[in-house]
Amino acid sequence: MTSTPWDEARAAAYRAGTGAVRPAASVPLPDADGLTLASPLVTLTDLPAFPTSSVDGWAVRGPAPWRIVGRVLAGDTAPPLGADGTCVEIATGAMVPAGTEHILRVEESQVDGDLVAGQPRPNPEWRTPGEEASRGEELLPAGTPVTPGVIGLAASCGYDEVSVRPAPRAAVLVFGDELLTSGPPGVGRVRDALGPQIPGWLRRLGAEVGAPVGPVKDTLDAHVDAIRGAFDGGADLVCTTGGTMHGPVDHLHPALAELGASYVVNTVEVRPGFPMLLAALPGGRFLAGLPGNPQSAVVALISLVAPLLAGLQGRPAPELPSVTLGAPIPGRGSYTHLALVRIDGGLAYPVPHVGSAMLRGLARSAGFAVVAPGTNAAEGAAVPLVPLPLLDGERQ
Ligand SMILES: Nc1nc2c(c(=O)[nH]1)N[C@H]1C(S)=C(S)[C@@H](COP(=O)(O)OP(=O)(O)OC[C@H]3O[C@@H](n4cnc5c(N)ncnc54)[C@H](O)[C@@H]3O)O[C@H]1N2
Ligand code: MOO
């Protein structure tokens, strides 16, 4: 068993994902929210597609006063303004007639019978075709996550459907006979803190996830059956929790052998979370083995599953922003140390209650500061941050 350095493990997980990127599919615009562009978004028309009035007023030609010869509303096709000394009433969003020299705002005009007078502003009060983008121009690259803003942009430049990478389908299997699924923990028994938690993280990383399954009985047969069942149910990725070590009832490794899996990563030189693994199964499917200790499971999720899912969705590899530490964080010898931090006044501070079996520190953290192997990070040092995949507003 060769352990992989943490940054190499992240890169290997991303490569594995890109090698099995989800096939592109065309979906109606409203269904694309949260998915990923499979091809660049190229505008199908000039934006705007026609000269468009920015104001309500009068489209005028030649010197004042102008005789009113018509009216053009948004949606109309405007006939040309043929003669000097004429104007048409024009609405915001309406097509500007050819021959228009100025648009005079209604509130800055004087109307007397069928004559209009006033001083137009010097700058054009309309948008010219192609001002925002020219037909055929690339607006967004492939790999862009589709947000409501992207959907709006696609609609404005003519799309009914977009080509996207569908969400990877993930399943969560919880291992551990000691786990309770309701009520308070008691003697020898702990509450399952991963089944209720992991699906939410996976969704924030772009996966589609059903209800967690488990606790799966601590036998090899039950493990193999549960994993097979999850893949047969259509999962591209199965996340298991617990059983990653080689204790008397840790059956994950033997189950992987029985299923013909090959390791992408088998243990990582990181603390906490080192027994994490990522395995590839035939057909471009994956199993992520998250350690049973709850914080370690989340470390595995952000270390291996996040880059894998980015690759499967055709997204760029997640980049790590840099943070400045407000307090020192010791290293963990030859391992990468991922230390939970909260951000306060622009500085990152380690939080208490960060044992690998604990979630109290994690629940109030923004992410993990990365302390490189063989180093200690001093107060004021700039280090990479692996953000927890929180939504805006969830980060404290
Ligand atoms: N001899 C050694 N033993 C262990 C080592 C080691 O190096 N040598 N490493 C420890 C580390 S590090 C971790 S992490 C764990 C990983 O163990 P497993 O992935 O095999 O997980 P389990 O043994 O099933 O459980 C570990 C721990 O976590 C609790 N647990 C499990 N699942 C859940 C859950 N869904 N919700 C809440 N808590 C859970 C479980 O009760 C155990 O306390 O191995 C160490 N051992
Ligand atoms: O991965 Mo274990 O301590 O690293 O929880």
Walk me through what this model shows.
- With 396 residues, the chain is α/β, with parallel strands linked by helices.
- The chain folds into four domains: 7-22 and 167-312, MoaB/Mog-like domain (Molybdenum Cofactor Biosythetic Enzyme, Chain A), CATH 3.40.980.10; 25-46 and 131-165, Molybdopterin biosynthesis moea protein, domain 2, CATH 3.90.105.10; 52-127, Molybdopterin biosynthesis moea protein, domain 3 (Molybdopterin biosynthesis moeA protein, domain 3); 322-387, Beta-clip (Beta Barrel), CATH 2.40.340.
- Helices cover 17% and strands 31% of the residues.
- It contains six helices and 29 strands.
- The protein has helices at 6-18, 148-156, 198-204, 220-232, 252-258, 294-312; strands at residues 4-5, 25-28, 36-37, 41-42, 52-53, 57-61, 66-72, 86-90, 102-105, 109-112, 115-118, 126-127, 138-140, 161-165, 169-175, 179-180, 190-191, 208-209, 213-216, 237-241, 262-266, 268-271, 277-281, 285-290, 322-325, 336-344, 347-350, 367-371, 382-387.
- The strands form seven sheets. Strands 15, 18, 19, 20, 21, 23 and 24 form a seven-stranded mixed β-sheet that branches. It has a six-stranded mixed β-sheet with strand order 9-6-8-7-11-10, with no helix packed on it. It has a five-stranded mixed beta barrel with strand order 25-27-26-28-29.
- Helix 4 (220-232) packs across helix 5 (252-258).
- Molybdate ion (MOO) binds next to loops.
- Residues 271-275, 291, 293, 296, 356 line the site of molybdate ion (MOO).
